[in-house]
Sequence to fold (167 residues):
Amino acid sequence: MRITYACPACAATVMVDRIESRTALECPACHAAVEIPGEAIAPGPPPRLRRCIVCPSSELFVRKDFPQRLGIAIVVAGLAASCVAWACRELVITFAILFGTALIDVALYLFMPDCLSCYRCGARYRGEGITGTFGGFDLETHEKHRQQLARMRGGSRASPSEASHGS
Ligand SMILES: [Zn+2]
Ligand SMILES: [Zn+2]
Fold:
């Protein structure tokens, strides 16, 4: 299992491989260590992730490990090429390009592996053992964590009644 996370101390992007065989993660930039809680990874095979390592959250979601920029770049390139074909009055080629672009996007999506993402800190997990425990993206959970983060950034003025209000 691999993890990509933002160092809590210096915000550098850190990538660590084989986290199931480690007890701590270390940031190469500032050497801040993140200890891996013993219960975070259930023993295998394959070892399974139970909760986030970087933050105390146990809410993660499965998503496609698809670089969004690449998807957009393909669509933009397809549109540009089809416009050129359209200007040359090549109707068949225009639609062939548009259809082909859509097909490439669908194929990429289907063949891309899954990755796990933490709602709270945005850490990404890849490799074996990430599926089976967590479901797909849930907007309500995402919103809950977004609001928690906004409250934390707004200072420690959050009222205790609000903090203890769980669902
Ligand atoms: Zn760091
Ligand atoms: Zn997290």
Remarks:
- The first strand starts at residue 2 and ends at 6.
- The pocket of zinc ion (ligand 1) is lined by residues 7, 9-10, 12, 27, 29-30, 32 (CB under 6 Å).
